[in-house]
Amino acid sequence: MDLQNEKCVMVIDEHLPMGLIANTAAIMGITLGKKMPEVCLCCDNIKYNDRERNEWYNKRNQEDKFRSCGGISKMKLADLSTGPDWIVWIGFFILAVLSIILVSGHGSCFISGYNMASKEEKAKYNEKKLCRTMGIGMSVIAILLLIMGLFENALPAFFVYISLGIILVDVVVIIILGNTICRK
To answer: What phi, psi does 171 have (nearest 5°)?
Structure first.
């Protein structure tokens, strides 16, 4: 390849999620650098051996880490999304409707385990309290989906882990409250 007269360009669909674009460009760059080391921009027309190229790369990588907000990723929640946004909104809508039904004290038929329990077992629980407890717990998850849907372009990617932690704690609290304060 004539480096003075020819250029190498990567064309990647801009509509892909940012994470997929970054991974694609990285893999293509690594492959191209391995197959055609003379194209590597780090060489600056100087022929480095493998050890020198690795030292240059490691130094450059460390400099980039210092520039990147203390190592915190700048990816947004929207960059992780690979599916359509309407799926989040349908999930929010379903959970919001179920939450409203349960918080109103109705909808015990939607509570797994309680709807199939015998009359003797159902008599041990306060149905209204159980419905409200499940409804409040479900509304927490619905609110998280609403936040993620509305602010997907502003929230950092690690918000997914925060949401999963909140959901896990929410489910544990629902189970504990359902088996303690909801009993008669």
So the answer is: -65, -40
Q: What is the DSSP string of the chain?
A: --TTT--------TTS-HHHHHHHHHHHHHHHHHH-GGG-GGGTT----HHHHHHHHHHHHHHHHHHSGGG----BHHHH--S-THHHHHHHHHHHHHHHHHHTT--GGGSTTTTTS-HHHHTTB-HHHHHHHHHHHHHHHHHHHHHHHHSTTTSBTTHHHHHHHHHHHHHHHHHHHHHTTTB-
Query: What pLDDT digit, counting tens, does each position of 44-63 carry?
Result: 444 555 666 566 556 555 55
70: tokens are 């203390």
